[in-house]
C-alpha cells in the first residue's frame, strides 16, 4: 500500500516523472467558475470545455446531467490528464451547506484509481471536496487511502501553503 504524499505547491503543476492524473471535484448543475477549477482553466481550456460540453449535450438529450459519480478524463498534455469527478450535488449555499456527496466521491476515486493503474499514473489533487463542496478532510482522506493508496496508486495532495502557515 502506498501513502499519501503531502506537497506544498500547485496541484496544476504536478511533480514526478510518470504519467499523471490531476483529480478534482465538479458539481452536477453545470456551474464552473469558483475554487480549484479557476486554476485549471487558467492553465488549460480543455477540462472546462469538456465539462460544459457534456453538461450541455446531456441536458439537450436527457434533460439532466449524467449524475453523481461520473468521471470525465481529459488529456491536457503528454502523459497528463485531468479527471473531472462529479461528486458534488448542486453548489454551496445557505440551503446546501455541504454539497459534497461522499458516496459519489468514493465511486469517482475508484474509477480514477482504475485509470491510474491502467496508465501507470500517479494521482495529484488539492484537498478535494474540502473547499466549496463543504466536505471534511477527516472523511475525504480515508476515501483516498481506500480507493487509491490501498491499490498501489501513488497520490500527492497539494496545499498552496503549508498548513502550519495558515492563520487561525
From TrEMBL:
<dbReference type="GO" id="GO:0003678">
    <property type="term" value="F:DNA helicase activity"/>
</dbReference>
<dbReference type="InterPro" id="IPR002589">
    <property type="entry name" value="Macro_dom"/>
</dbReference>
<comment type="similarity">
    <text>Belongs to the SNF2/RAD54 helicase family.</text>
</comment>
<dbReference type="GO" id="GO:0005524">
    <property type="term" value="F:ATP binding"/>
</dbReference>
<feature type="domain" description="Macro">
    <location>
        <begin position="1"/>
        <end position="168"/>
    </location>
</feature>
<dbReference type="GO" id="GO:0006338">
    <property type="term" value="P:chromatin remodeling"/>
</dbReference>
<keyword id="KW-0067">ATP-binding</keyword>
<protein>
    <submittedName>
        <fullName>Appr-1-p processing domain protein</fullName>
    </submittedName>
</protein>
<dbReference type="InterPro" id="IPR031053">
    <property type="entry name" value="ALC1"/>
</dbReference>
<dbReference type="InterPro" id="IPR043472">
    <property type="entry name" value="Macro_dom-like"/>
</dbReference>
<dbReference type="GO" id="GO:0006281">
    <property type="term" value="P:DNA repair"/>
</dbReference>
<keyword id="KW-0547">Nucleotide-binding</keyword>
Amino acid at each position: 500500500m502506498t501513502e499519501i504524499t503531502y506537497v506544498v505547491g500547485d496541484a496544476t503543476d504536478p511533480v514526478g516523472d510518470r504519467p499523471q492524473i490531476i483529480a478534482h471535484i465538479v458539481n452536477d448543475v453545470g456551474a464552473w467558475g469558483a475554487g480549484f477549477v479557476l486554476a485549471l482553466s487558467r492553465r488549460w481550456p480543455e477540462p472546462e470545455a469538456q465539462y460544459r460540453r457534456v453538461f450541455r449535450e446531456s441536458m439537450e438529450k436527457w434533460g439532466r446531467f449524467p449524475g453523481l459519480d461520473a468521471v470525465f478524463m481529459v488529456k491536457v498534455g503528454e502523459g497528463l490528464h485531468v479527471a473531472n469527478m462529479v461528486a458534488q450535488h448542486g453548489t454551496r449555499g445557505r440551503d446546501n451547506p455541504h454539497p459534497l456527496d461522499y458516496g459519489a466521491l468514493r465511486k469517482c476515486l475508484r474509477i480514477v484509481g482504475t485509470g491510474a493503474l491502467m496508465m501507470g499514473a500517479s494521482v495529484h489533487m488539492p484537498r478535494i471536496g474540502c473547499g466549496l463542496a463543504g466536505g471534511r478532510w477527516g472523511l475525504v482522506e480515508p476515501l483516498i487511502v481506500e480507493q487509491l493508496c490501498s491499490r498501489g496508486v501513488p497520490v500527492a495532495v497539494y496545499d498552496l501553503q503549508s498548513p502550519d502557515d495558515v492563520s487561525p
